[in-house]
Amino acid sequence: MAMGYMEHDQLPKAVEMLKRALLAARGSWKPLPILVNACLGYLEGQADAGDMKELTTGKSVGDVLDQMKMNGFAVDEETQKILATRPSL
């Protein structure tokens, strides 16, 4: 469902559906990187650090930064601060 919202530029709804899916999956499912990156990009633009943390829960800071770099996202100082607010995301 989140992919459909993303594909139709309804990113607030995509973020909400992704959060719900992550909560329901409890580690047994991993979303497509393109979806996570789109949602994180949207949240970064909205300056929503709280939701960014929710989407990265369970991943190490290094994993998140590596995934962002692989997908062409610039990892700036602010992004690193957000990700570093918790020792293990």
Briefly say what this structure is:
The chain has 89 residues and is mostly helical.
What descriptive keywords fit this protein?
mainly alpha, 6 helices, 89 residues, single chain, globular
Descriptive overview:
This protein has 89 residues and is mainly α. It is 67% helix and 0% strand. The protein is built from 6 helices and no strands. The radius of gyration is 12 Å and the shape is globular.
Which SSEs are present, and which pair or pack?
Blueprint lengths: L1 H6 L3 H15 L7 H14 L2 H8 L4 H10 L6 H7 L6
Helix pairs in contact: 2-3, 3-4
Distance between the termini: 24 Å
Q: Give the helices and strands as they follow along the chain.
A: HHHHHH
C-alpha geometry? globular
Low-pLDDT residue intervals, each spanning 5 or more residues: none
Main beta sheet strand tally, sense and closure: none
Question: Nearest-angstrom radius of gyration?
Answer: 12 Å
DSSP helix fraction: 55-70%
Our count of helices gives 6
- Class of secondary structure makeup: mainly alpha
Strand content: under 5%
Instruction: Please report the total strand number as a whole number.
Output: 0
Average pLDDT taken over every residue: 77
